[in-house]
Design goal:
Elements (H helix, E strand, L loop, with lengths): L34 E4 L16 E7 L2 E7 L5 H8 L1 H9 L7 H7 L4 E3 H15 L10 H7 L11 H8 L8 E7 L2 E7 L12 H15 L5 E5 L2 E5 L7 E6 L8 E7 L3 E6 L4 E4 L2 E4 L14 E8 L2 H14 L1 H10 L4 E6 L4 E3 L9
Parallel strand pairs: 1-9
Antiparallel strand pairs: 2-3, 3-7, 4-6, 5-6, 7-8, 8-11, 9-10, 11-14, 12-13, 14-15, 15-16
Helix pairs in contact: 2-7, 4-8, 7-8, 8-9
The structure holds adenosine monophosphate and magnesium ion (MG).
The site of magnesium ion has 6 residues, from helix 8.
């Protein structure tokens, strides 16, 4: 496996100034210094949210630190009700929650999934089809071998990887709506032994559902942060929210740039989120489904700005997997989508409209 540089070379970021598309732009100077960071929080959730006035609740759920900050005159308990939704969705989308919907599908104990899970899978498969194999939710057997969630840091053997790779093929998965006693559901057909991993997808969907819930309960100004999956609800009294993009491999509050966003999503994917080093190499959690090993490219991180967070989550992982040129092309060809890439020399490469979103 090729080496990925483990030491950052700090260079001035080269940004491209081009017209805005997609999300709302900062129209005026913003005096508020509250900043939410996209990128992975590793230790203390309080280190990632600089509170000024908002009511903020924090929790550890979905295997990460999450928070909701609402700029409303409400009691914290109001936000805890929304946070609690994460538990229901974690049960549905997790590969590891025994008895959960995805777990049962992966174990082969059923071929039926609830309609929400089915629809999320359909969306992911749609992007997978246009990714030329770079993004595949059927990568579960391989990610299970690498086991980044447990932190065991074991490099699987070539034989284990080879055998797991035989089960990875999104083109062999199909979903059809079917009526069940519990209501609408999907029947999933996939080759025996295949395991679906929605780690690149689920947090985005869950963020969208939390936003829906907040709006349905009258919240118009808030920031949802699910471990760096940031989703803005409205704006801050007309001002945009400050969303910092974390500098890979740097201190928890170090930002490489700050975005000013209104009512949209910013999601980061990268190699500094879950990784370990062995013999000078970095092994990280975004797997090349063609080789079964972590991607090796010139990128350390990709951040995608979209309207909804499900698309943002899928595309941030996909853009990382595609590498610089194809990621930029994807952003260009996808409406309301901007991408900010951090290369392994810490330089930034951005899509046409992204620069207008930066501070
Ligand atoms: P994210 O943090 O959203 O970029 O997603 C990374 C997670 O997606 C990993 O931890 C795996 O669970 C899963 N994953 C890894 N490689 C791939 C891939 N090539 N396609 C789809 N999902 C992947
Ligand atoms: Mg993702």
């Amino acid at each position: 496996m090729k080496l990925i540089k483990t030491k950052a070379i700090f260079l001035a970021a080269g940004l491209i100034a081009l017209p805005l598309s997609g999300c709302s732009q900062n129209a005026a100077e913003n005096s508020n210094n509250d900043t939410t960071l996209t990128g992975n929080p590793k230790e203390n959730p309080a280190a990632f949210t600089f509170k000024k006035d908002p009511v903020t609740v924090n929790a550890f759920k979905l295997d990460t630190y999450i928070s909701i900050s609402a700029y409303e005159d409400i009691d914290e308990s109001y936000l805890y009700d929304t946070l609690a939704l994460c538990d229901r969705y974690e049960e549905m989308f997790s590969m590891h929650k025994e008895g959960g919907a995805l777990y049962n599908l992966n174990e082969g104990t059923t071929d039926k999934v609830p309609s929400e899970l089915g629809r999320v899978m359909e969306t992911a498969l749609k992007w997978s089809q246009s990714s030329d194999g770079a993004f595949q939710i059927s990568v579960g057997r391989v990610t299970e071998l690498w086991d980044f969630t447990s932190g065991s840091h074991v490099i699987p053997s070539d034989n284990e990887i080879k055998s797991a790779l035989k089960t990875v093929d999104d083109t062999k998965i199909s979903l059809s709506p079917s009526d069940s006693e519990e209501g609408a559901a999907y029947t999933v057909s996939m080759p025996e032994g295949t395991k679906i991993d929605l780690g690149a997808v689920a947090k985005g969907y869950i963020a969208d559902k939390l936003k829906e819930d907040l709006i349905s309960r009258g919240i118009t100004s808030a920031v949802i942060n699910l471990g760096g999956n940031v989703l803005c609800v409205g704006d801050k009294n007309g001002d945009p929210f400050n969303i910092g993009i974390r500098k890979p491999f740097a201190g928890d509050t170090d930002m490489i740039t700050v975005l000013k966003l209104k009512d949209c999503s910013a999601v980061s994917s990268g190699i500094s989120e879950r990784y370990f080093e062995e013999n000078g190499r970095i092994y990280h959690h975004i797997i090349n489904p063609r080789t079964g090993y972590p991607y090796e490219n010139e990128l350390w991180q990709s951040t995608v700005i979209t309207k909804d967070s499900l698309t943002g989550d899928i595309l941030s992982t996909l853009c990382y997997a595609l590498g610089t040129d194809k990621a930029l092309e994807l952003a260009k060809n996808t409406p309301d989508t901007e991408v900010i890439l951090v290369k392994d020399d810490l330089s930034l490469v951005t899509s046409d409209g992204a620069n207008d979103l930066m501070k």
